[in-house]
Write a structure and sequence with these properties.
8 helices, disordered N terminus, transmembrane helix, rod-shaped, transmembrane, single chain, disordered C terminus, 6-stranded mixed β-sheet
Length: 417
Amino acid sequence: MTSRESREKKETESVDEAPAREQSGKKRQECEVYTNHPVPSPSLQHPSAGLLHSVLCLLHHETFLLHSLQCPVPPDIHHCKYTGLHFCNILAQCNKTKCWSEKGYEVSHDQYLKGKLFLTITAVDYSNRALYTCVCDGVDACDVRLIIETLASSLQLNPGEALVMDLPIPEPVEVMYKARDSADLYGAQICTVTQRSIHCQPEYTHRASLSYPNITLRDVNMTDSGIYSIRDRKNEEVIHIYTLTVNVVKLETEKEPGSLWWIGVIVVLLLITFIIVVIVVMNHLVQRLKKEKAELEETIKLNGSVTELRSRQRSFSDAGPLLRKMLEMEKLIQLYKPESKRKSLSLPNLNNITVVEMLLKKKEEMEAVVQHRQDLEQYTISQWWSLRRPELDKLIEHWINNENTVLPQHNHQSVTQ
C-alpha cells in the first residue's frame, strides 16, 4: 500500500491509463465477510466510515461463484478505487462512465452506479492475503482484511507408512506437533523450513525430509499420532492442520478369542484327518503283508510238498536194494550162527574164500550203505544196524576162534576192532 499523497495523486489519472497486472494460474474460490471491526477515521464522511471488514475465504480445488469484498458507496461519490497493503498500484477503480480492474480482480459498473462498489477476486490463493482499502474521492471508505481459512485434513496410516504434508506458501514456515493427550494449546515446534532447507529436532532429523512442495515424515508409529500444523511464520497464521491417527497393530497374542477358537478347531480337524489317513494306510499295509505272507507260505508248502514227493520217490526207488541187503544180512547171521555151524560147514565157500572173509566183506558193505544213507529212513536203518552189528561181530569172532584157517593180518585187526 502506497502513501496517502501517492494515492491522492493517482486519483486524477484516467481509468484507461491504469497499468495492467498479470495474475495467472489461480483458482476461483469463495469469500465471505464474517466480522467487522471499527477503526477510528474522522475524515470519513459516509455511513461506512471507520469499518474494517475481515473476510474469510475458503480455499477449494473447484471453481465457485465468488461473493465480493464490498463497501457501501454513497451515490454522490464520483470516483472510487481499491488498493492493497502489499501491492504498489491500484487494483480497481471506477467513475461515472466506466470501471477498470487488474487481471484477477473484477468490479461491476452497474453496482457502482447504484452506490455499491464490489471488488471480486476471481482466483484466491495465499498471495492474495492482504489489507485492502477502498478510497472514494480521496476518503477511505473501508478497509478489508482477506484471510484464507485454515485447511484441515484427517489421515489414518499404518505403522511404517509416511506422512506427507503440503507447503502451499513460500518459506519461512514451521511444523508444530501436539500429541492427542497433550495439555499444550499450540504444541511444540518440530521442524522449520528456511532457504529451501529443513531443520528438525534430533528425534525427527533422520525421518523428516523436504521435497518441494512437500514435507515427509517417514516410518510413522503409534506415538506419532496427534495434530501437525503448518504455520506461516511471516504472517503468523496456521495454513494447514493434519490430524494423524496411526492404526494399532495387534500382536499375535492379542488376537480375539474367537479367532483362536477357530484356529484350535482347524488344528484338531487336521490332526483327526491325519490320524484317519495313517490308520487307513497302515490297515492297507497290514492286509497287504498278510496276503504276501499267505502267498509265501503257500509257495513254501507247495515247494515242500514237491521236495517231499521227490524224496519219497527217491526213497522208494532205493528201498528195494536196501531191503535185499538187509535180508541178506539177516540170512547170513542166521546161517552162520553157532547152532547152525554144522550146516554152514557143509556149504561150499563162494569163490573159495573162508567164512570169516565173507562175513567181513558183508559187514563192510553194510557199513557203507548205512553211512551214505541221507534220507528220512536213515534213523530206522541205523537203529536196525546198531542191533545187528554186535551180533555179527560175535559171529565173526566165533568163526575166527573155531577155524584153522589163518586170516590175513588186516582182516584179524578188523574183526577184533
